[in-house]
Here is the input.
Amino acid sequence: MTNSVDLAFTSALDQARLIRTKEVSPVELTQLYLDRIERLNPQLGSFFTVMTERAIADAKLKTERLSESELPPFFGVPIAIKDLNPVEGVPCSYGLKAARDRIATHDDHIVAKLKQAGFIILGKTATSQLASFPYTEPPGFPPARNPWNLEYTPGGSSGGSSAAVAAGLCAIAQGGDGGGSVRGPAACCGLVGLKPSRGRISMAPNGEALSGFAVNGVLSHTVADAAAFLDVTAGYVTGDPYWLPDPETSFLEAAKRSLEPLRIGLVTGIDPIGKADPICAEAVEKIAHLLESMGHAIEPITPNFGAMVEPFTVLWRAQTEVGVPPFLLEKVNRWLWWRAKFTSATRYVKAKQQLQTFARQVVGLFDRFDVLLTPTYLHPTIRVGEWAKLSPVSTIGQIIQWIAPCPAFNVTGQPGISIPAGFDPNGLPIGVQVVGRPADEATILALAAQIEQVQPWAEMRPSIADF
Here is the structure.
């Protein structure tokens, strides 16, 4: 590494290699990130909790073990965890000011898996309140800000994780995606954001989140890091309500394989919501032309997601009914809470049935296509607080217009990955989404890696990163 900034932006897999070859120690790498967090987090609001003492203690123990012959794949590599997933002995707030000092009594399953893989946890990253929104501005916390332009959001609800990776506060971060909450922040911050298939990563010790729509995912600089993260976190846990068979080869190997020509559906608009902003449409069309030059077949389509909006909203607002008094909720969550309070069980069940019917129609598109290529969001990143003065109804309408390409694939449970695809006129990143057949992460990882090889993005850094 030529300097500390280069090391901070080195991929997690390469950091693991540097540790194994003793070119850098876990203590040196952890301290590098803690120093950057101390310097930059006050501007970014990316971490709610920084686990300085625990991270250094873990790094020292791992540095002492470097002579061992068998080390886990990410041994000594620092990572960040979204503040929606408990880490034993550390506050877990869910973006609620009233819960910011509530100490978790256990590790979430994915946290335990990441520890087993050798990661060192730096801290808990910012999330929107109850992970409800595609921006990260929970009352009682500083808003998370986009490292490319601090006036703009890094997305949400995994906005803290995306800001941290984009600013070089960690090389990789865990996030959760219930309607685009990994893919959207990745697009806002110029990162790779992988939402795995439903059932790929266990939600233990819980059963499901947001009626099965929410899954754990990852934000990283490279496709390979996302694939390797999936390798160390995937797998069935006894009692899981959803599960998938283990893949025949690792996801990292799948990301390296060559692809036969694919049938790709190109989406630049969604009925009845409308067309993508020209900037986002142009970005996805450029990627489509690139793929066509590689031999893949492109066919424009305009899917209709209209049947999803109302029933998805019914289930979305139901997540606010988690035993939190409404006076502790910000205004949109409070409005959703009251709507949920007067939604009957019959209406809830009917909404789930409607979404299952909708899912069959969407998955049916994959009789014609191997993957879909869409804008990650329909318009570029919004400013911090841009919708703060709107009514709850207007805010939800704006959210639907923005995130429309993402939630349908939470409903279907299909895997999706957002990859960088250029910048808007304000210098903010734009992302495109690749969606695969159910349980087919292998194809979208391979296709994303193919794009990455021709159009590399890992060296992109916001100017704030050099400080």
Summary: The chain is about 40% helix and 15% strand. The radius of gyration is 20 Å.
